[in-house]
Amino acid sequence: MKSLLDELKSGRTLVSDGAWGTFLHKLGLQPGECPELWNVTHRAEVFSIAKSYIDAGADMILTNSFGGSPYKLEHFGLKDRAIELNKAAAEISRDAAGDDHFVLGSIGPTGALLIMGQISEQELHDGFSIQAEALRQGGVNAICVETMSAIDEASIAVKAAKESTGLDVVCTFTFEKTILGEYKTMMGVSPTEMVKAVKEAGASIIGSNCGNGFEQMIEIVREMRSIDPTTPILIHANAGKPNYVEGKTVFPDTPVKMAAVTPELIRAGANIIGGCCGTTPEHIKAIVNAIRVG
Amino acid sequence: MNDGLINQIGICIERGKVNKASPYPGDMVGEDGSDELTRKALSDGIGPDLILQACNSGMQRIGERFSRNEVFVPELLMAAKSMNAVMAHLKPYFQTGTVKAKGKFVIGTVAGDLHDIGKNLVSMVVEGNGWEVIDLGVDVKMSKFVDAVKANPGCIVGLSALLTTTMTNMSKTVQEIKAQFPDTVVIVGGAPLTSITAERMKADGYAPDPQGAVAFLNKVSMSWKNEIIA
Question: How far B167 CA lies from chain A's nearest CA (Å)?
Fold first, then answer.
């Protein structure tokens, strides 16, 4: 099997997976439960999510390890099981993906802020290294540092992942549209600033995830492409800002809508397209069809 | 002279200048921060209420700039840090009753949600505006909110959530508080929320950002005052 970067060089647009978090809750994960613990206690459910995206036609899937940094696991008293839980996450996705699909090891932010002294750079680096290495042992092809908003934490995560595993690293940030019409993370980082920083840290694929739906991603990709014409871009958009209807959370972007936006996203310069919160295997199937038809 | 000193404290809050040693912001390196200036103001005999007023307006300015998306989380956090430095000096005056808080605000992230950044921002900005804040932390069970309302009669309650999956718990918490304390005012906020969602949860208010929470709290306390006068 070619490497992910070689596969992208062929010019083909690849499809990634959809939501994990909202999917886990649908399968019974309770608010306040540790999602990563399910890699051990509810392996079959986690596997079913991974497999459903492979069956939907995705070229790659992520892992159930978004909150698997030792710092995050500490909230649940599971810090000491970081290696076990991350390795299990990778093994489950690898089982579902087989040898002919890519697996990206998911690493999310810690939620601790360097500028407030809540965590040190060394602690961050050590934690991300442990997580990335465990994901590599479990069989991932690359690491995906995602949903970042601060340059400092993202750069440390990318460097730690790269140094500890030697694998390719994807890095995606979450942007919101400001009232001035620009895109910024909650920490005030623009796509332009982000691209420079994470490439310097060693990321070989850049991108954006979560946010407020597919349409805004087009503008974000355009901004990234305007300063970087070549680095592959991965987009994991959520299914829009959720509505709360009769006690249930409902996401507005349907598979049909996502499929309709896909060609424009590719024209803007995206190379890998998948979903985030609220997207399902149906969304991924629709994106696959849109790409094949287009 | 005093006016200059008081104004400078307000500027230190707005710019997030904590103390002389702080490297932030870059253009104020080596200058006194809110820590040194407050100590000086108090020893010059400036009333703590005047210092607090200057801080409140500094916090107000940075809060408004945050609402206008001119500054982001780091700037707001540094302003709050600078405010904390002032509060450390003013604490004795609160204890003796020389200066009084506008009211009590109980805040927490609802059960099942471990996110604290948004909650902390609101907590700090509200405190910086002159309210006493009782921060219950993250993953706060309904019973803990109820106990806090019991222990702090007349408080306003703020509920935070980041996860789309914990909005259900938020709604339940609003209902539980209202069931036991029908007069308690509850405001909600967090990334997945909108004013429509807040209305459906039967919350009294929704704030899209920390300054919005301050505006809501001040409006509620004003309406209380007016009722008393009437």
Answer: 8
Q: Who's near B32: CB < 8 A, 6+ residues apart?
A: B8, B12, B19, B20, B40
Q: Could you identify the residue written with the tokens 């509620």?
A: B220
Q: Using an 8 Å CB-CB cutoff, list chain A residues near B115.
A: 111
Closest-CA distance of chain A to residue B194, Å: 8
Name beta bridge partners: A106: A144
Q: pLDDT of A121-177, one tens digit each?
A: 999 999 999 999 999 999 999 999 999 999 999 999 999 999 999 999 999 999 999
ipTM of model: 0.86
Report yes or no: A145 and A170 within 8 Å, Cβ to Cβ: yes
Q: Are A247 and B168 in contact (CB under 8 A)?
A: yes
Q: Using a CB-CB distance cutoff of 8 angstroms, which residues of chain B are in contact with residue A277?
A: 164
Tokens for B173, please give them: 């918490």
For chain B, the residues whose C-beta falls within 8 A of a C-beta of chain A are 68-69, 71-75, 77-78, 81, 111-117, 139, 163-169, 171, 192-194, 196-197, 200-201
Phi, psi of A201 (to 5 degrees): -75, -15
- Identify the CATH number of the domain in which residue A35 sits: 3.20.20.330
CA distance A189 to B219: 33
The structural domains of chain B, with segments of one domain joined by +, span 2-96, 104-229
Give A-chain residues touching B71 at CB under 8 angstroms.
188
Are the C-beta atoms of A85 and A36 separated by less than 8 Å?
Answer: yes
Rounded to two decimals, the pTM is: 0.91
Domain count along chain A: 1
Provide the domain limits for residue A64: 4-293
Structure confidence by residue, pLDDT tens digits, B181-204: 999 999 999 988 889 999 999 999
What CATH homologous superfamily does B2-96 map to?
Methionine synthase domain (1.10.1240.10)
> Minimal CA–CA distance to A173: which of A164, A279, A153, A165?
A153
Q: Tokens 């994990």 correspond to what residue?
A: A20
Question: The domain at B104-229 falls in which architecture?
Answer: 3-Layer(aba) Sandwich (3.40)
